[in-house]
Specification:
NTP_transferase_dom, Nucleotide-diphossugar_trans, binds uridine 5'-triphosphate, two-stranded antiparallel ribbon, about 25% strand, nine-stranded mixed beta sheet, 10 helices
């Protein structure tokens, strides 16, 4: 484990919990994992795998359930399909098909039942090696833009030790939709020390306007804490309860306040915004979509 004075602590391993039921996307998620729904043409899970790889992760542990194996299959090479595309001279498509498997070494950890995010992260522990003194956790339904916050979080861990989370500053009137950090200042405006967290507070009771985002750089101590917390509502083990236990035991926890954009892919409304946002930037689909949106909105 690192001390605050040790050399910068990178991470080699990123965990992506993808074993949830995806009820907000029913009925589609009866058959298709929400992590594979395409933002334009690329599944959300490839977007977060790209972010993890860019931050230096070498392994991606995808926590998935027995009936969602398609999520990890997505990262397997498809030699027959590749050959067909090659034979047909479809170079751009071949590049897209190869992109996911080439990004990062993906492997599976199984969560037999959806017993909460904390439980899902705990299911990845057997996949870790002795070298993993910290792990990154990326929620695949949360796009944090532009990429780079994980690198900043690693710098903060190198300075303060412990665990580092990611926050967005949101308008106070919207704060009750989020988990909110109770923080104290550091000498860096964008880094705060965490005292605690409050789930979905009323605006006038929120301890800050810093809302939790789905990026975590967790000291390995979190796996021990996950074994010592009690399940909450619905028998679920919450990751934030394990972090709260660590804080109560004096473990340093900081947040990096990310001044960028974000898309919530976890519900159809947020997913549509992300798809439109990405499509408007797409050279193939953007111009026509823009014209159509302008015309469509003028009619409404
Ligand atoms: P969410 O609560 O957003 O996803 O969990 P969900 O439970 O699949 O969706 P709804 O609420 O039913 O619509 C955040 C992430 O944690 C994973 C989910 O797959 C999602 O990527 N997760 C959640 C697990 O892997 N296991 C769990 O037990 C719960």
């Amino acid at each position: 484990m690192s001390s605050p004075t040790s050399t910068p602590t990178a991470f080699r391993t990123a965990i992506v919990p993808a074993a949830g039921l995806g009820t907000r996307f029913l009925p589609t998620t009866k058959a298709v994992p929400k992590e594979l729904l395409p933002v334009v043409d690329t599944p959300g899970i490839e977007l977060v795998a790209t972010e993890a790889a860019e931050a230096g992760a070498q392994r991606l542990i995808i926590v998935t359930s027995p009936d969602k194996r398609a999520v990890t299959e997505y990262f397997q090479p498809q030699p027959e399909l590749e050959q067909t595309l090659k034979d047909r001279g479809k170079a751009a498509l071949l590049e897209k098909v190869r992109r996911g498997p080439a990004l990062i070494a993906a492997e599976t950890a199984l969560q037999e039942r959806a017993l909460g995010l904390g439980h899902a992260v705990g299911c990845a522990e057997p996949n870790l090696t002795d070298a993993d003194d910290a792990v990154a956790v990326l929620l695949p339904d949360d796009l944090v833009l532009p990429h780079g916050v994980l690198t900043r979080m690693a710098e903060v861990r190198a300075r303060y030790g412990g665990s580092v989370l990611c926050a967005f500053d949101v308008p106070r009137e919207q704060i009750s939709a989020y988990g909110v950090f109770d923080v104290t200042d550091t000498d860096d405006d964008d880094v705060k020390r965490v005292r605690g967290m409050v789930e979905k507070p009323a605006p006038d009771e929120a301890p800050s306007t810093l809302a939790a985002a789905g990026r975590y750089l967790l000291d390995r101590a979190v796996f021990d804490a996950l074994k010592r917390i009690e399940p909450g509502a619905g028998g679920e083990l919450q990751l934030t309860d394990a972090v709260a236990l660590l804080i109560s035991e004096g473990h340093p926890v900081h947040v990096v306040v990310h001044r960028g954009g974000r898309h919530d892919l976890g519900n159809p409304g947020g997913f549509l915004k992300a798809a439109v946002d990405f499509a408007l930037e797409d050279p193939e689909y953007g111009p026509e979509l823009r014209n159509w949106l302008v015309e469509r909105i003028s009619r409404s």
